[in-house]
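Example record for the data management plan.
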Amino acid sequence: MTSTTGEAVVAVSRRIGAPAQVIFRILADPGRHPDLDGSGMLRGGDFDAMVSGIGDVFVMRMHNERHGDYEMNNHIVEYEPDRRIAWEPRPGLGHPDATVSGAAWGHRWIFDLVPDGAGATVVTEIFDGSRLPADKGTEVDRERAWWRTQMVTTLDRLAELSARPADAELAALKGALDRQREHVLGILEGLSEQDLRRPVLPSGWSCLALLRHLTLDVERFWFPGVISGDPDVVGQLAAGAEAHWYVPEGMGADEVFADYRAAIARADAVLAAATPGQEPAAWPVELWPTWRLPDVRHIVIHVITEVACHSGHLDAVRELIDGTTWLGGNPYAG
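Corresponding structural encoding:
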């Protein structure tokens, strides 16, 4: 269903079979805007987080036949979580109007979300040009059909993105993480306790010490600690990671492996209750005051990278110990 209101306002509505929360998370993530853009002008940008309130600004690279490549600085002017979001684009780098002091046309892109039954939302996209100068408002009115077409396409794409279940994304990420966890356990299989404890590389760590690091500083730290903010783990967020690169006296290899598997099970329970765009419940500002992972999606990707890196370390150590390789031979052999 499409409608218009006023001479320089165009509005298009569509019922989307997804909760308002899911749809709003997509709209509040500038990195996903090119995927839903119906105009074909958005080229992306450098985004490290979702917008979180009025006053936030995100820069979008753009392209059209009239101006070529340029940027628009988008100022968030309305922000009601799961209900309404709006931004006011202003000409940026490469746009001819960017040289005008304080250039701002006053038009706004608005998305209004109204729940409509179980798991569905009526989404209205609004191009509000009521604040535009008279000449630009006339141009919008003249090209109303084009605006409607690209807005209908945008809502169609938004519906497609919203229909992709979040659990499918996390399932794919968890699958990749599980392969790396299996790699860690598999490359250590068959080693004696003596080999598991002895340092092989000049840096001096042992296989069991690295497994303790993965248990405490990866599986426990990121999942129950950062994602869930569990009280019994939060205190660890301020501790130095190097403190966990050792095996406590009296702790046997079987116990080290059992703790690692238990930490994985606890981490999986956290993931089962999470969504990709969920913000972390706690963050170790004492460790990283200026760096932050914005959501579960980025945290899992970070963990996959770290576990993959350490599984490679274990590959090197195992080959030096007894010649065993994870791939079972030279993968480049003809």
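Summary line stored alongside the record: The chain is about 40% helix and 20% strand.
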